[in-house]
Amino acid sequence: MKILAVDTTSGACSVALYDQGQVKERFVRAERDHTRRLLPMVEQVLGESGYSLGQLDSLAVSQGPGSFTGLRIAISCVQGLAFSADLPVVPVSSLAALALGAVRENPDWATRQMPVLAALDARMQEVYWGLYDVTKPGHALLPDQVSSPEQVIASLESAGYVTAGESGVDQGKAALLAAGPGWGYPELAELNPRELLLDAGIHAQDIAVLAADLWQQGKQVSADTLQPAYLRNEVTWKKRERIRPSK
Fold first, then answer.
1. 21, 38, 116, 209: most buried by Cβ count inside 10 Å?
2. Co-location of 154 and 210 in the same domain
3. What is the 3-state secondary structure (H, E, C) of 162-218?
4. Partners of 121 in beta bridges
5. Domain that holds residue 54
6. pTM of the entire predicted model
7. pLDDT tens-digit readout, 93-123
8. CA 157 to CA 174: how far, in whole Å?
């Protein structure tokens, strides 16, 4: 199985090739110029592998949540490649990739019997977040959502992952592993997780690994049906209205 994965969800640009269980990645931290960088990186990864686009089984991309602009760039790129080579696409949660990357960078996490809470800064005092099984980071224990830090804690309490009053440094550490810049909000950090990887990022190599499993499950889609998972659709709609006001 050969899958090419692309990501521009956050402040980085990455492309990776999954080839029969082996993954090679090009990763560049860049807040801007994703559009200019992405296709040359795709060509480099394919060139180094010796494969053409048509020899792949599928493409994969971070579906979101994340930066609206970043998601559109990656998804548009993958749609163009998919149409040109008649390939299916596997959409992958950016939060699942974030959780998997944190476990990959911290192998000892896999021995901990506690979930990974991946969180990205959604601005406006909210975070994109998802709760994932540490032994199977692609398996969501709670669905990806956007909430205030206080609402995150309330949701965890309601689902039984955190007991009321467990947050706060004086109350000990919550039985959670934490990954992602969304944990920079002090209100969320009050959960005091057992371990925290604040600078965890989203990598195409993790998207590729997750996509391989999803591909085996038959969860690929056609390029024309690929849609970003913004989670904050009302904000997206307002932005579209400002750009293209109704008549």
1. 116
2. no
3. CCCCCCCHHHCCEEEEEECHHHHCHHHHCCCEEEEECCCCCCHHHHHHHHHHHHHCC
4. 127
5. 2-93+202-243
6. 0.90
7. 999 999 999 999 999 999 998 999 999 999 9
8. 11
